[in-house]
User: Which sequence fits this backbone?
């Protein structure tokens, strides 16, 4: 169980209010989410700007001290992912803290792979040697990240949303082989700064599409220095609605991608993956 946040925008955008200052900012969720749970086992913020990734993460609570606030205030990007962790697989430590980074790729996960040690036995032989050797921590999340990158490296001609759907369905099938009664949860965000994809499976996930410049109700300023030669559009994705705006639920049992026009395109997972995952309707 964790809380995550993602942004994809046409122009560099500040995310400080979404992470720190809004009514239900990610930092507030780390202290207490809608279910009353605390996510105090680490935090991370990562961005992609002009092909240069930046990541800052720590193995303590986002609300503990000023470090998270200062990091959030620095982010001004077209693509960003942030995460606060409640550890389920892997001890609280820096190596197990999201987002995970490889080259241009940024990744975060909210959920749990049950019986992970036994599922890991099936996953590891499927990894390319590069990704196998570069695993640093012990989380199910980092292994999922490396598996998805392995699939993408083998078939870069395929749309990433299809790679993600196939990868999640395969992971679900391994989980079901180990324990047919297990309940899996796999909300992920993955981006290289241009392509942005994600999934919702048995954890809450919401999105907000912005069409044009909006003056923030929190800080009283727009979050972008707008170029009038192009329309501004953006998509925010989060485990919980962050502001009073019209956030919408990502349907359960789906994968999605942010199109070039900054619209969320959602696709249902295949019947095999859905059946194995035992998708449930969640109270929001």
Assistant:
């Amino acid at each position: 169980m964790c809380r995550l946040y993602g942004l994809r925008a046409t122009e560099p955008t500040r995310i400080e209010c979404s992470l720190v200052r809004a009514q239900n900012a990610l930092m507030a969720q780390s202290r207490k989410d809608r279910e009353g749970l605390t996510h105090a086992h680490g935090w991370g913020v990562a961005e992609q700007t002009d092909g240069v990734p930046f990541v800052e993460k720590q193995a303590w609570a986002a609300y503990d001290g000023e470090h998270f606030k200062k990091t959030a205030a620095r982010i001004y990007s077209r693509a960003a992912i942030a995460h606060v962790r409640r550890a389920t697989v892997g001890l609280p430590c820096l190596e197990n803290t999201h987002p995970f980074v490889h080259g241009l790729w940024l990744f975060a996960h909210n959920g749990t792979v049950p019986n992970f040690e036994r599922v890991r036995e099936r996953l590891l032989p499927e990894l390319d040697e590069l990704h196998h050797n570069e695993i640093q921590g012990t989380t199910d999340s980092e292994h999922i990240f490396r598996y998805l990158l392995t699939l993408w490296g083998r078939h870069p001609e395929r749309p990433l949303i299809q790679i993600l759907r196939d990868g999640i369905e395969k992971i679900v099938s391994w989980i079901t082989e180990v324990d047919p009664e297990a309940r899996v949860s796999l909300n992920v965000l993955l981006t290289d700064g241009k392509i942005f994809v994600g999934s919702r499976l048995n954890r809450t996930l919401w999105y907000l599409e912005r069409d044009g410049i909006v003056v923030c109700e929190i800080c009283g300023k727009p979050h972008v220095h707008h170029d009038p030669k192009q329309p501004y559009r953006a998509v925010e994705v989060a485990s919980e609605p962050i502001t009073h705006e019209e956030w919408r639920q990502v349907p359960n049992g789906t994968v999605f991608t942010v199109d070039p026009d900054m619209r969320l395109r959602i696709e249902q997972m295949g019947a095999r993956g859905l059946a194995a995952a035992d998708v449930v309707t969640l109270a929001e």
The chain has a mean pLDDT of 92. The CA atoms of residues 169 and 271 lie 9 Å apart. DSSP finds eight helices and 13 strands in the chain. The chain has one domain: 2-277.
